[in-house]
Records
---
Amino acid sequence: MKNKCRLAVLVTHPIQYYYRLYRELERHPEIEPIVFYCWKGGVEKPHYDPTFKSRIKWDLPLLEGYRYRFLRNLYPRPFRPAGRFLNPGIVPALIAGRYDAVFVWGYDYLTAWLAFLAAAVSRTPVFLGGSVISRTHRPLLTRVLKKGVLHPLCGRVSAIFSECGRNAGYYVSHGADPEKVFWVPAAVDNDYFQEQARLLGPRKEELKRDLGIPPLRPAFLFVGRLDPRKRVIDLLEAYRGLGDHPAASLVFVGEGEQRRDLERLIDRYRLPNVVITGFKNQTELPRYFAAGDVFVLPSEYDPSPRALNEAMNFALPVIVSDGVGTAGDLVVDGENGLIFPVGDTGILSDRMRRLLDSPGLRQDMGVRARERVSEWSYRKGVEEIFRALRSLPGS
């Protein structure tokens, strides 16, 4: 291509895991990106996040290193269920911008459909992406509606950007051409987290003492929202199922609606060495990963949880449910972690006991976890986005 490809990106709001991708796009010598945001939440002042039950202002430079523009949002309550974002300004922005392509993150908000409309009017190719995987049990009406909406959409877009294998499978099942699916992996800043692991690794015992847990006891670690979808009660029950087994500890890093339920159960069962830290911002997380020995994610539905990548960068073996979308390609059962059926606390407890019994296995799996996650990078994602741009007619 003789000139830079002009790429518009539409996303709901600044997200801590995506800004590095935009920076990498900005650095690419043949791509000229601009990011359109529907809402400013969490970057200029704290906002209340109902999922974390906390007021949050991210402590990362989410708006530095790339071009962006905030669109005026007419929807009064962005995180309420129906609609959430309504930004009519995306229509003239895309029509006047004469972009080579528009990359729309997700399809479940009104502004995304305004972008699809503007792209159709201006004959701008559409790239579609979003963290979603198929669910085994969905109401019939939901399945019929999704088929009616998604099949035409997936069949018309110029490219699909998938974050993992099951994400790709979701779009293909809804009519996407497999030849138009490009892997833009669910990534984190691997270099940063591996450097933090190197710096904090020698302080593991100190960091455990800071948490109030015995420094020589292996610590099972959960990082995320404390809510039903993450099935944090399952993890507590599995920990309880260890019984009189060799001593361990359990650390929940996060906040959410089930915190009080967890605290009541901890008191009822008189479980020792269980800690709930509350919400921790991004730059605070490395010290908790460094204190952990095994990362556990028992989610019911979790398409591409980045806390999993972060843990693997700290060379932690992982135990994840089969409700985690990246289980099966980022996590390889028996090699760098263990996978168990969603909701089966008995099997989860057995998986925890297996790693508790085997320090050597924990170490070997941890090393392979770090090797595996190193392949899931923002640089790889930019390569795939550029490949999609080059696949367009006339490129």
---
Amino acid sequence: MSRLAVLIVAAGKGERTGLNLPKQYEKVAGKPMLRRTVEAFGSVGNRFIQVVIGPGQEALAAEALAGLDLPSPVRGGATRQESVRLGLEALAASFDENGAPDYVLIHDAARPFVSRQIIEAVTAALEAGARAALPMLAVADTLRRKEDARWSIVSRDGLFRAQTPQGFVFADILAAHRAHAATPVTDDMALAELADIRVVHVEGDERNFKLTTREDFSMANAILSAGETRTAMGYDAHRFTDGDHVWLCGIKVPHDHGLLGHSDADAGLHALTDAILGCIAAGDIGQHFPPTDERWKGASSDRFLAHAASLVADKGGVIVHCDVTLICERPKIGPHRQAMRARIAEILGLGIDRVSVKATTTEGMGYTGRREGLAAQAVATVRLAP
């Protein structure tokens, strides 16, 4: 199996951002940008990740990377080119007697939105025999060059925007850096070309932009603050039994029958609990509150719903909206609808405008039509933190 290393270059001062810290340590949606970038690579298989930092940034790096299983950062040089070379030398020294890594991906810490697809595409190109691979995007905007007082159009044909990670056969790029250390270049692909290494192009990604200005950070925060939105469904049914009331959506509703169940048989809250659990892929209500467990015999179902909500909160998520549909011929839901909405909103800590309760019948068909029992289905929407 090939040995792949990742070199993340985080040695700059980031002065163009106008922010308080070097930009790689500024927080993006509550997390240092450097950490986000490292985590993007750590989520894609087993990779040896080496970070290069600027002189005097040790404390900032230690705080940003706390808890991650990484080797100590390497101190970079006065230029990006020198920092990369020092990082490559550190990688060569880090590996055991079996030799240096086969391939290396060199990535800017200021590109925290690098995707799994780009990382895998660059890696696949190297493993397929390329000596160097570069993600690029074709230029789509109209380009103009100012000449005196006039603006001439520059043809976009053959023009591309280069991104990182730039991937290489490790021995090749290390040799190129050593041989051309005195030749200033803007990126590692320029060194590859100086060393006559053929570059293969893979498709880049618009989201893999480099954060350089204060406006870039605002855009990054906007992207991440949206988080991930998930929607899931839940369903439950209970048969009627002797009794004089039913519990539905947390409200005691008078009726000429009760509902049969291990807990209070509140089908509305059970369906909604399952929908919320589904949004975070946390199983179903039976896994958390088994009907064989005597602790839950006759239990009030608001405890189940509150538990599901707490699991969402533990993941840094919020419940955005929920919708419950009760399916029965009797009891009539309309007189109790507002109280049901208010109770669900209270349990979940939501505004009542984010809770919907509806009712329908099956026109006399099936077990609900024959008044043997009732059913409920629910849909929940959850927004998870990035």
